[in-house]
Amino acid sequence: MRYKGLVCVARISKPFGKKGEVIIIPETPYFETLKKYKYFYIEYKGERRKLYIQKVKMGGRRFIFKFKGIESMEKAKALEGYYLFIEREKLIEPGDQGYYIFDLEGLPVFNENGEKIGFLQSILKGKIYDYFLINTENGKEIFLPGVKEYIKEIDLKNEKIVAQIPEEL
């Protein structure tokens, strides 16, 4: 999710304990990067507010964050449900093996012969693998498993995806 030049990376779930800590639910598959940031933004009562991280604890795929200035359960409760954002240019890149979904959405999709199939509308999470939802040039929607057999190339430099669409789709 993007918001006024920012990218959503997590959501504040609920308070943890009585000292102002909160449970954070990652909104990115690269959840381990969350502990590397110094601050996040939230949209709080109509204005953008910066929350500086004081302390981070990690347990599985969730975090417990302590933000500076949030010293009580009541203050932590007031943050419940808010999304945490970071500037796109400050995002820690996932490296050669990964992509942020928002960087792929909207890219044109071509077959291996270079013919345009359509564009990537979104990527949907599945239990075993993700699905690429492709809107075709003729108005159809195709759900394509996000595996190497079908997604042949993701080229962010040239802003395109190359896919092999099975005949039955």
Radius of gyration computed on alpha carbons: 19 Å
Distance between the termini: 29 Å
Helix residue percentage: under 10%
Structural class computed from helices and strand pairing? mainly beta
% residues in beta strands:
over 45%
The biggest beta sheet is recorded as: 7 strands, antiparallel
User: What is the N-to-C succession of helices and strands?
Assistant: EEEEEEHEHEEEEEE
Number of strands: 13
> Averaged pLDDT, please?
88
Please tally the helical runs, counting DSSP H or I stretches of 4 or more residues: 2
Report the principal-axis shape. elongated
Detail the poorly predicted runs. Answer: none
Description:
This protein is mainly beta. The chain is 6% helix and 48% strand. The chain has 2 helices and 13 strands, in the order ββββββαβαββββββ. It is elongated, with a radius of gyration of 19 Å. The relative contact order is 0.16.
Short description:
With about 170 residues, the chain is mainly beta. It is built from 2 helices and 13 strands; from the N terminus they run ββββββαβαββββββ.
Which helices and strands appear, and what pairs or packs with what?
Elements: E1 2-3, E2 6-16, E3 21-26, E4 39-44, E5 47-59, E6 62-67, H1 73-78, E7 83-87, H2 101-104, E8 108-110, E9 116-124, E10 131-136, E11 141-145, E12 151-155, E13 160-163
Parallel strand pairs: 8-13
Antiparallel strand pairs: 1-2, 2-3, 2-7, 3-6, 4-5, 5-6, 8-9, 9-10, 10-11, 12-13
